[in-house]
Design brief:
The protein is mainly alpha-helical. The chain folds into two domains: about 60 residues, Homeodomain-like (Arc Repressor Mutant, subunit A, Orthogonal Bundle), CATH 1.10.10.60; about 140 residues, Tetracycline Repressor, domain 2. The chain is about 70% helix and about 0% strand. The chain is built from ten helices and no strands. Helix 1 crosses helix 6 and helix 5 crosses helix 6. The protein starts with a helix and ends in a 9-residue tail after the last helix. It comes from Streptomyces spongiicola.
């Protein structure tokens, strides 16, 4: 009997996180409430507090789930994998409420009760791991500090999506991501490698 109970618990937790993401995406952290999240998720108060003790705990769960909506969709390796990661992100933020809510919560931390740099650090860690592999394969210049490059890409994407959200509701974010790489690639790799990178962002549409 333990397995069905565990399965129900997992499904309930997933439903709560999805409901929370929808509410956070719509109202932001300040405008969201536990009651709204419970209603959206279709769960009881007991079920809610069994899995999450507070709205802050829910916000952290949504924020830290961001890579799970992007990384599993990647197939390439090396520098192409890093480019593709940003391309998948650019499309997914338009249609995946969990990613979109996580991004909103991460960007709205100033003045909120949730102060957590984990989402930024996790993205930088994932990027740095792939960048290290690309550098070992000679795709990225030896003089490039991959830690700094990973942080730069995270910062650039963060600012870019905020700008795109303001001017187009993020509809042009994929094209802006391509433009970022056209500017960045010549500074981190050779002309030969840069020419080999597939910048067709619509592969992931």
């Amino acid at each position: 009997m333990a397995k069905p109970q565990q399965d129900r618990a997992v499904k309930t937790r997933e439903a709560i996180i999805l409901g929370a993401a929808e509410v956070f995406d719509e109202y932001g952290f300040r405008g969201a409430s536990i009651s709204k999240i419970m209603k959206r998720a279709g769960v009881s108060q007991g079920a809610m507090y069994f899995h999450f003790k507070s709205k802050e705990d829910l916000a952290r769960a949504v924020m830290t789930a961001q890579p799970d909506t992007v990384v599993p969709r990647l197939g390439a390796e090396g520098l192409q994998r890093i480019v593709d990661m940003t391309f998948v992100w650019a499309w997914q933020i338009q249609r995946d409420v969990l990613l979109r809510a996580g991004v909103r919560l991460t960007n709205e931390q100033d003045g909120a009760t949730v102060r957590d740099a984990t989402p930024f650090l996790e993205w930088a860690r994932i990027l740095e791991f792939s960048l290290a592999g690309a550098q070992d394969e000679g795709e990225i210049g030896e003089s490039i500090d991959i830690g700094q490059l990973a942080e730069f890409i995270v910062g650039a994407c963060t600012g870019m999506q905020m700008y795109a959200n303001a001017v187009s509701g993020r509809q042009d974010l994929p094209e802006r991501t391509v433009a970022m790489w056209r500017i960045l690639l010549p500074g981190i790799t050779s002309e030969r490698v840069a020419a080999s990178i597939d910048l067709n962002v619509h592969r992931f549409a």
